[in-house]
Design a protein that fits this description.
Order of helices and strands: EEEHEE
Shape: globular
Strand order of the largest sheet: 3-2-1-4-5
Radius of gyration: 12 Å
Largest sheet: 5 strands, antiparallel
Distance between the termini: 20 Å
Length: 79
């Protein structure tokens, strides 16, 4: 399971859960690529947060890999 959170510089607040993310990891350190999100939970909340962040130019975020208790195991920065 995965979660999306904005880059606030503080403790991450997971906005939406995602069952699977494809093409998020790879051997390239910094790369632009499209990712595929599968079974996104609470899509309206995710869209709203991303749209509001884009208006304020705070459009950076993270996709976090979560354990069964929804605790963060690792994260990937996205812009």
């Amino acid at each position: 399971m995965f979660g999306f959170a904005l880059d606030t510089g503080n403790t991450p607040e997971i906005i939406s859960l995602i069952d699977q993310v494809y093409n998020i990891e790879g051997s390239n350190g910094i790369a632009y690529k499209k990712v595929r999100l599968v079974n996104v939970h609470d899509i309206p909340a995710l869209i709203s947060v991303v749209e509001n962040a884009s208006k304020m130019y705070l459009n950076n975020g993270f996709i976090y890999r979560l354990d069964q208790q929804k605790k963060i195991l690792s994260g990937t920065f996205i812009k």
